[in-house]
Amino acid sequence: MHMPAIQRKVSERLGIYPNCSLTAEQLDLMWYACQFDVAVYGKTNEWCSVFGKEDIAVLEYIEDLESYYQRGYGIPLSHQISAPLLQEVVKIMDAVVEKDTESPYYFTAKSRFAHAETMLPFYALLGLFKDTEPLRADSPQEVIERRQWRDSLIGTFCTNVAFVLYNCTSTTTHNHSFAVRVLFNEEDIALPGCTQEAPFCPYEKFKKLYASQLSLNFDSLCGALSQEEEEQERELATAAAAAAQARVHAAGEAGLVSLASAWEGAVVAVEEDSDKLEIGHQHLVHLELDDQLRNERYKKKKDKKDKKDRKEKKKSKERGKSR
């Protein structure tokens, strides 16, 4: 079943079809109202009453698909961006294991608070709630029904995950060892690759399981610039703005029609000094040109008005003298 079919069914239940039909946007709003009715008030007999069980199943899967690709397993980058969170968790546990009390990561406990948009990618980074087959719009019904990735179960209000580090040092052999216990919504959850030892996972094994995630570089993933590159970007932007201002100023009395060529000339001038001109710089130059354009227009209007006022005053004086 697709959205148009649900729109028609709900419109029929409301008694407005065939004279009119709900839009997809209106249906979405009703679906959100239904969700909050259940979550906040525990009501299913108001907004939810317009939906049948099949409608709810389809609408829920549509949302899960969106979540799966935006914040889950659908696109690797969607969950890889959570790597800094896991890296910090391990740094904190490393500091405790090594008894490095001087480390900025040494904590007895540390809490972080966020929204589902942070939690869901983090769950995917840990390999939790991963389906054996990727979720798709055309997935077989059995795949849809047995899916683990369900926002209504894993992205709830107050969803949480906790890492508890245990010192398992033997009192007889004094062999030092540590283990991690992970809890999802205050209940034990087995980590993929460490199910036999669940609910505990030996700490060294834990780090090996997530070695690739711990080696991810957020700046590289997201295309962030180094400090040196940022400085170069600023210098290039400054040069672009200065070139634009110079061209516009030079246009001067030639008239506003010269602004277009001034803009192109500014870009060329900067490109001659650099192999690249980022879109951000173009925007900056464009803004500079817009400001200059407004100033030029304001000045011309003001000069024209002042000239007109002077003429009116002169005429008024002449009329007064003639009388």
Q: What would your notes on this structure say?
A:
By secondary structure, this protein is mainly alpha-helical. It is 58% helix and 6% strand. It contains 14 helices and 4 strands. The chain has helices at 3-14, 24-41, 53-71, 76-80, 83-97, 116-125, 141-145, 151-154, 203-209, 211-214, 218-222, 227-251, 259-273, 279-322, and strands at residues 161-167, 178-184, 187-188, 200-202. Strands 1, 2, 3 and 4 form a 4-stranded antiparallel sheet that branches. The longest helix has 44 residues, at 279-322. Residues 253-288 have low confidence and may be disordered.
Residues in helices, as a percent range? 55-70%
Tally of alpha and pi helices: 14
Query: Helix/strand-derived class?
Result: mainly alpha
Rg over CA atoms, rounded to whole Å, is 32 Å
Mean residue pLDDT? 82
Q: Give the DSSP E fraction (strand runs of 2 or more residues).
A: 5-15%
Overall geometric form: flat
Provide the succession of SSEs.
HHHHHHHHEEEEHHHHHH
How far the N terminus sits from the C terminus, by CA atoms, comes to: 90 Å
For the report, how would you describe the main beta sheet?
Answer: 4 strands, antiparallel
Low-confidence stretches are 253-288
Q: Got a strand count? A: 4
